[in-house]
Design a protein that fits this description.
The structure holds 2 protein chains of 2 kinds. Chain A is an alpha/beta fold. Chain A has 2 domains: about 15-110, Rossmann fold (3-Layer(aba) Sandwich), CATH 3.40.50.11890; about 130-250, no CATH class. Chain A is built from 8 helices and 8 strands. The radius of gyration of chain A is 18 Å and the shape is globular. Chain B has 2 domains: about 1-65 and about 205-220, ATPase, nucleotide binding domain (Nucleotidyltransferase, domain 5); about 70-200, ATPase, nucleotide binding domain (Nucleotidyltransferase, domain 5), CATH 3.30.420.40. By secondary structure, chain B is of the alpha/beta class. In chain B, strand 7 (about 80-90) and strand 8 (about 90-100) form a beta hairpin. Classes of the chains: A alpha/beta, B alpha/beta. At the A-B interface, helix 8 of A face helix 1 and strand 8 of B.
Chain lengths: ~260, ~220
Amino acid sequence: MTGASPTIPHGLYKKIGIIGMPPLALIREANVQGLSILDLDEPLVKADLESASPYLPKVYCAILRTAVVNALHLELDAIYADTGPGKCDCALHTATILADVLKIPVIKTINIDSESFGAPICQSGLPLLAKMQAITAGVKSAAPRLNPPPPCPPTAAFWGVPPRDFSILELFPDTTHIYGWARCMENKTPADHELEAEYNPEVPTVFFAQSFCAKTALARYLAGRHPHALYLDLDAHTTSSARAKIQAFLELSGVMP
Amino acid sequence: MIIGDFGTSYCKFLDLSIPDAEPRIIASKELSRETRVDIATGHNGKRFAGRYINELIALARGGETMIEEDDFVLLDCGSRDIKFVKYTKRKLADMGWNAECGASMGFTIELLERYYDLDYTSLMVPEQTFFVTCGVLGMSDIFDTVISGVPVEEAVARFVKGIAINAYRFAGSPAKIYLSGGLCANPLFIGSFPCQVVPLGRFVLLRGLAAAAGLPSPPSLG
């Protein structure tokens, strides 16, 4: 049953999986109960992505294919999947399929949280990879972040979602700020489309989206409006041509030596 | 200092320490494993050099040394891929590298020339074209067209025109394109673009490597 604020039965679960960002109230409840939360959007098992193919088309969001692979191979008590405006219809259909395939409850949620937590990590001088890891790890906690890192002046920006393959992030300087849905994640407002569409026109920006994701349209549109941008979409892995495009973009933009 | 552009089908080398040296071209399949250069670019380059510069950067740096205009689009059509850089006011404004959906176009053009024993300098630019997205899919169009009774020369010319139009669109459909790569020597390909084409030859990336090394390009690179 779809609902804005589903609850977690007391004492029934020990380990739950999440897809997207379920509402903060639900994460808070999971934290209070001391449940282990696994973010199924991230690669967690060694099984090949192809093992999702019986359930999802091969030409489909690699994040959701990853979530299906995780769901098939991990021992979970339940899955909470956000299927509202903070995620996508693809997640809605994936949750429907998982509910049919798995023997555990798969609960659809709609996260329309609007309380802003800020985005200090996005604006910090941490390595971009560490920034993104901190943001995605933050999804599993309802507590406000203590001792946020100080901000740094940006020389570049990465707009988009956390990529399926984080190795792409190693190419950027530490002074890269994060925009797009990843910023919404840190702010704990994944359905804030106005925040998602923000960018900094003052610094060269890579507008990234997962291949076959609806956000490719927004990423490409915003890249067209930005005075100095590179639009990039990637599927499961970072290709050598994508890597070269980013390197060239940053070097020719004067960001990297 | 030896610089090398290690392409999929051909490798180009130049020894910058020899005055007036001419670039050498070697088929990639004949390349010795012991080959070593100081700076390399290209698909196969990393294995042969201590310093590697990726192809887009080499292309852009080469274009900067060869093109005087403030605004330009430089397109490189290789055996395996197509890539472009667009400059506005002498600054990078856009770029692209299509190694998947636009794959194997240059390779396929050369393959067809040998398979059908064609001379591209004698083929006319056709009225019709195929809507080509990659070399492999384009070959199916050729075979189907030949079966339907169209001469091989006409079918291949439609394919080449389709590749040119696809590359033109990939580069953003500009009014003028500076062209890099071995296909600069193919008049059918150049004539098939629906815009002005300025061929710069196949050593643009070598010029980019020389620029990256902080050395002037010798006249032999065009």
